[in-house]
Specification:
Blueprint: E1 3-7, E2 10-12, E3 18-20, E4 23-26, E5 31-35, E6 38-39, H1 52-55, E7 60-63, E8 67-71, E9 73-78, H2 94-106, H3 111-127, E10 130-137, H4 140-150, E11 153-160, H5 167-183, E12 192-194, E13 197-198, H6 206-219, E14 224-227, H7 231-241, H8 245-251, E15 260-263, H9 269-278, E16 281-284, H10 286-291, H11 299-305, E17 309-311, H12 324-339, H13 347-354, H14 356-362, E18 377-381, H15 393-399, E19 406-411, E20 414-418, E21 421-422, H16 427-446
Parallel strand pairs: 1-7, 2-8, 9-10, 10-11, 11-12, 11-13, 14-15, 15-16, 16-17
Antiparallel strand pairs: 1-4, 2-3, 4-5, 5-6, 8-18, 18-19, 19-20, 20-21
Helix pairs in contact: 3-4, 3-16, 5-6, 12-13, 13-14, 13-15
The structure holds the ligand CSC[C@H]1O[C@@H](n2cnc3c(O)ncnc32)[C@H](O)[C@@H]1O and zinc ion (ZN).
Zinc ion binds next to loops.
Keywords: Hydrolase, Metal-binding, Zinc
Pfam family, one: Amidohydro_1
Cofactor: Zn(2+)
Length: 447
């Protein structure tokens, strides 16, 4: 067995305990084989009576001294190549922001641009401890190449928009989403999974939604879309159909146990119950919801109803970064404000949302450090001034730590970042290429 040992740190366990333990990883299998003396086969190595740590010299070690070993963080909704549009258009509500600024710029994007933006976003994610993400965008073969090279996990899909398109173009868009879902599923040694991704229930026509969802079910891939993000998106559905968006989603068979919807800001109690009954997850994007003034998602009520709530940054144009620590803090703060209750959405909840619940929402391995689990983890330094003293490490994860506090990132047993150096990407080249692509893009849009 080719092993990696993460030594000297404190480990966040699935039950919320923090223990001083080494974590031993089987790099070939990409799984955790031991956490302290807890192993897959009950603490011993093949019945020898000795623990894994006693019998097995590790092939490689990662120093976690003074650090907290946490499950790799999960960004359950983003548009990763939108890093190219970071700071391009700020301080507007969703609809005019998309129509006046973002969509005209996206019309000029080339596959090369998308690859450059995706590499920049993935670099930022690895540097802030993210090991898995869900991405809805265009040129997804290029995004998949980046994910493959960089070593993360992802659930990828081509985003479909049919409004404003003739029948043939709309159908082609649906077909492209289904092609991506079928062709890329299982790529990158299984680290890439896919989904059918209509943009939303208002930007994709009913017949295309019905056809696409039926084909997705046939192909065995989940559905991911933006839902109930703004009142401007909810009201037309209620006016035209006489039913709320989540009821509409159910009617077109888009409300399944493997499906996950982004935002879920404007949900009434009946919709929360429907989501809970169906087992459909919601990805909360607090920074984007605040910046676009979309509203406050009922996170506490969703969790109390039994809905799996994950966390997402959304794209870097509405956030404006991909730092999961920001998202945990924002979710805890906004959750309290929304519930008018300081005990709502506590630190333990947002850490769960960014780890185990994120992995579960995306149907990807990871999210827990325990024997047998995927070896997806990050080591967070706890010795910075803004993290001193450490009364409660979970409080620090939620409220005080930043992406730049992450020392190492590991996914599928591979070290992606060691001592803040990203090993799978050339950081300088990625940044240079993305900056040039963004500048050329803006020139083309202005012509
Ligand atoms: C069709 S690919 C995805 C599409 O979504 C756009 N987008 C980015 N952020 C949001 C958001 O918060 N709500 C809805 N749509 C968003 C992105 O620019 C792409 O066009
Ligand atoms: Zn989005």
């Amino acid at each position: 067995m080719d092993t990696l040992r993460v030594t000297g740190g404190r480990v966040l366990r699935p039950d919320g305990r923090v223990t001083e333990s080494d974590v031993t990883v089987d790099r070939d299998a990409g799984t955790v084989v031991a956490v302290g003396d807890e192993t897959v086969n009950g603490g011993e190595t093949a019945g020898s009576g000795e623990t894994v740590e006693e019998t097995l010299d590790a092939d490689d070690t990662l120093d976690a001294d003074g650090g907290l070993v946490i499950p790799g963080l999960v960004n359950a909704h983003t548009h990763v190549a939108m890093t190219l549009l970071r700071g391009y258009a700020d301080d507007k509500p969703l609809d005019p922001w998309l129509r006046e600024d973002i969509w005209p710029a996206e019309a000029e994007l080339t596959p090369d641009d998308i690859e450059a933006g995706a590499a920049l976003g993935v670099l930022e994610m690895i540097r802030s401890g993210t090991t898995a993400f869900a991405d809805m965008y265009f040129a997804m073969d290029r995004v998949a190449d980046v994910v493959d090279r960089a070593g993360l996990r992802a659930r990828l899909g081509h985003g479909v928009v049919t409004v404003g398109k003739d029948d043939a173009d709309a159908r082609e868009d649906v077909e492209e989403s289904l092609r991506v879902a079928r062709d890329l599923d299982g790529a990158a040694d299984g680290r890439i999974r896919t989904a059918f991704m209509p943009h939303s229930l208002t930007t994709v026509g009913e017949e295309f939604l019905r056809e696409g969802v039926a084909e997705a079910r046939e192909a065995g891939v989940p559905v991911h879309l933006h839902a109930n993000e703004t009142t401007d998106e909810v009201d037309p559905i209620v006016d035209e159909r006489g039913e709320r968006p989540i009821a509409y989603a159910e009617e077109i068979d888009a409300l399944g146990p493997d499906d996950f919807f982004a935002h879920g800001v404007h949900l009434d109690d009946s919709e929360i119950d429907r989501l809970a009954d169906a087992g459909t997850a919601v990805v909360h994007c607090p920074a984007s919801n605040m910046k676009l003034a979309s509203g406050m998602a009922p996170v506490q009520r969703l969790r109390e109803a039994g809905v799996t709530v994950a966390l997402g940054t959304d794209g870097a144009a509405s956030n404006n970064d991909l730092d999961p620590f920001d998202e945990m803090r924002d979710a805890a703060m906004l959750g309290k404000l929304a519930a008018a209750d300081a005990t709502a959405v506590p630190a333990t909840a947002v850490v769960e949302m960014a780890t185990a619940d994120g992995a579960d929402a995306l149907g990807l391995p990871g999210g827990r450090i325990e024997p047998g689990a995927a070896a997806d983890l990050a080591v967070v330094d706890l010795d910075a001034p803004h993290l001193t003293p450490v009364h409660d490490p979970i409080s620090h994860l939620a409220y005080a730590a930043r992406g730049s506090d992450v020392r190492h990132t590991v996914c599928d047993g591979e070290v992606l970042m060691r001592d803040r150096e990203v090993l799978t990407l050339d950081a300088d080249a990625v940044q240079e290429r993305a900056a040039a692509a963004a500048s050329d893009l803006v020139d083309r849009v202005g012509e």
